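Dissemination and training. As part of the outreach component of the grant, students in the summer workshop were shown how a complex can be specified as a set of sequence lines and then modelled as a single object. The example used during the hands-on session is reproduced here so that future cohorts can follow it. Participants entered these lines:
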Amino acid sequence: MEKLLEEFSLGLFFWQAVLFIALVFLLKKFAWKPILDSVNDREEGIKRALDSAEKAKLEMQNLQADNEKLIKEARAEREAMLKEARDIKNKMIDDAKEEAREEAGKLIAQAQASIETEKKAAITELKSQVANLSIEIAEKVVRDELSNKDKQVKLVESMLGEATLN
Amino acid sequence: MRRKISLKPITLLLLLITFVSYGAEGGSSSESGTDKETEIKEYIQHHLQDSYDFTLFSWTTDSGEHKYFGFPLPVIIWDNGLKVFSSSKFHHGEAVAEVGGNYYKVHHSKIYKVDGLNGEIIEDADHHATNEKPLDFSITKNVTMIMMVFLIMFFMFKKMASAYQKNRNLPKGMGRLLEPIVLYIRDDIARPNIGEKNYKRYMSYLLTVFFFVWIVNLFGLTPIGMNVTNNIAVTFCLAIITYLITTFTAKKDYWKHIFWMPGVPVPMKIILAPIELLGTFIKPFSLMIRLYANITAGHIVMMSLIGMMFIFKNWIGTPLSFALAFVIGILELLVAALQAYIFTMLSALYFGSAVEEHDHEAH
Amino acid sequence: MEIPAIVGAGLVVIGAGIGIGKIGGSAMEAIARQPEATGKIQTAMLIAAALIEGIGFAALFAV
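and obtained this result:
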């Protein structure tokens, strides 16, 4: 202890104090402050860059999700449209079929009706013909009767037979 | 540690290791072994002391004349007026300097006033000089080195700082080496010990003290032969600055914990107060002693091992002491950084305790 | 017979050495157990060792 006190040099203490304190203040102004500020700036910059990268990544993911959603929607829409088209097509076909069937039915009915009319007309004609024939036959019979009775009967009979066959 | 010394061969050895490769003749004078031992002891003691001139090495010629290689430094003393003169007047402590009618002599690296040109230092029974001591503000060897380190640090870090501005906040050259250290001090010493809120105020001091102590310690290991941190005045100065910063930036809680420790019974508070108060002085005191003692001890061990080479002077002892000195030298490199780290670390710890805000419910 | 003060200082140094050794040993164990806390353990170790070292030096210089 005594040796330490003896060794203590006031001059050295004085110079050390002056120089060291001056050094602290000089370095504070010219070195530590700019260095630490720069390092801080840089660290902030890195942090910010990382943050924005993270944000960009998130945005990207959002965008991707959006895209996927859009694609899905589009696909659904397309599906729906196709379905609708198919439905319409089917309906149209069905409608056409129905119409055709109706038309055909109508045509058939018309045909049947006309056939019926024709038939009726034919029958009427036949009837009138039969009547005419009958009159002719009757005429002939009457003429024959007038000449030969036997022959007349025979003719009527044969003619009647023919008529029934018709 | 209280041995007195001056051995020229060792200077020569330092020279041999670093500057030139001669000096093998260093210890070849025909002194007996004990003489050599005393000489080595004196040399080590001399090396540990400050000196008024900057001597890189010295030797003794065959005719017994002392030769010195170096340059004198200005001596500034206050003795009824400021007196400035060159240390060459002392002739390396061998002569009495006459300045303005007063006579001064160097004794154990201190300037004493003597009666005349042939004036002697009068010693008391404890070998303490009783002569009058003028106030001494000389630019000694250590002051020169402090100035050198001052300039080196100032320009080195200024350059580093300006590189950041020019280089988009990126370090360049030396800065790449120094930046991790600066960041280490900030992130691993200041932040955890002082706290996120307050650490910025102390950064300048912590960084300066770390680099100052480190660089000065490293210079102490070079053969220039300076050893600033083994002067108690230097470490005292650093410790007192730490103490003053701690005291003047301390918050209410710090004083409260010293004088009226919360959470303990009143009689204990009264006992604790003086102990805590004493603790505040012991802390910087231990800082001072630790740095001083580590560096001094390191230098003594190094010098002794080097000196042993000249005592042994055979094929076993000399290489062995050389190897030992080499290993210790590497260890000293570590110690140089470690002591700077511990000084900074403990300073930060003390600052941290000064600004800490306690949660009183927790006690 | 008077015991020289340097013997006392030696005793203190032995004590300090044992103390620092114990701190170092415990720190090693702690690091082995929790390698992730290496930094904190080292810091605490250095502080404790430095404090003990201070006592050792105080004893040496008191002589």
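The radius of gyration of chain C is 15 Å. Students were then asked to discuss how this feature might be tested experimentally.
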